[in-house]
TrEMBL record:
Domain EGF-like, chain residue ranges per copy: 135-171
InterPro entries found in the cross-reference section: cEGF, EGF, EGF-like_Ca-bd_dom, EGF-type_Asp/Asn_hydroxyl_site, EGF_Ca-bd_CS, Fibulin_C, Nephronectin_domain, Sushi/SCR/CCP_sf
Organism this protein belongs to: Poecilia latipinna (sailfin molly)
Family of the protein in this entry: Belongs to the fibulin family.
Source species taxonomy: Eukaryota, Metazoa, Chordata, Craniata, Vertebrata
Cellular component GO terms, alphabetical: plasma membrane
Protein name: Fibulin 7
Amino acid sequence: EIFSLLLLLFLLLLLLLLLLLLLNSYKYFMLRQMEKFLKGQEIRFTEGLRIMKSKLASLQNSVSKLPQPDPALVDSPTTCPSLDAPAHGIKFGSKHFVGHEVHFVCTQGYQLVGSSTRVCRENGTWSGVSAVCKDISECASNPCQNGGTCVEGVNQYKCTCPQNWSGSHCQHQTQTDVNECEVYRLDQGGKLCVHECVNVPGSYHCSCPSGYKLLPDGRSCEDVDECLSQKHNCSRGTSCINTGGGFRCVNPECPRSHGNISYVKTSPFQCERNPCPMDSRSCHLAPKTVSFHYLSLPSTLQTPATLFRMATAAAPGRTGPESLRFGIAGGNSRGTFVMQRSDRQTGELILVQQLRGPQEISVDVEMSEYADRSFQAKHVARVHVLVSPYSF
Ligand SMILES: [Ca+2]
Ligand SMILES: [Ca+2]
């Protein structure tokens, strides 16, 4: 048993010896590798050193060619020139030796421009640039928008905004405006504007269509009478007729001659029949006078409305007709008008149906004279109704 134990011990010892041997050879291998690596490094370093040396030599060469500085200046100074505190500022640090620092601070309301810290350098100069204390003008950049006024404060500014603007820079429009046009749109009682309402911040105004002017009440529109104000461009021989929103140049023509009936123009708006042959009944029945009338009406005028009156008067020294008959001779296919007697000598043309503009309509009104119940003469009035697009 002791023998086997000794054998085991011997075997273990042998194994340990073998292990040590193995470790030693590995170490040796590693050392060789390291040696190789270091050798390589050494070669590279030597090479680098050689290049450096040659560069240094060439540099020294070039330096030696430069003019030699004054030996007095070569002596390194030990102080820098003294520095003053900037106006409206304070300086910290009183030593001006090389390596020392000085600091600058501006008093309230002033801003430092330049270097706040400066170091005295080896060559006797200060690092950085000189410090200046500038008055802080926060408003210099015009920070307030939309007409705001900038007010300077301590290290800040404040914008005083005009009406309807707010925000730190007056950049917000405040919704204080009332759109009167929208609010009163449905108010039937008092329409703000007869034509168009224009909303503006803090107010509103009315506008009129072209050819109309706003009345002093600020809400009503009135047609411009171009004929009265000589703003028309009607050529000679035509007559200006004012209409709602514009004007018209007219030159009405007399009825065409046919048979022995012919007319002559006696005024810009009147034609008279030439004398008839005694025996021509058709000529006597034809209108003795034809007159032309122009009526400018607003759209949707309230009906009934008397538009036109036709009358006759006895010529001086002559007795007038004993009776008159009035009627509509043409142009009333839709029953828009009626003609009725208003007194013994006068007939009235009455509009009985609303006319929506813009439109034009013509109606011929006639008046016949009778004496002793026998027909004497007929007069025709041609009425042109010009309806504007607007109800004002
Ligand atoms: Ca408004
Ligand atoms: Ca007009």
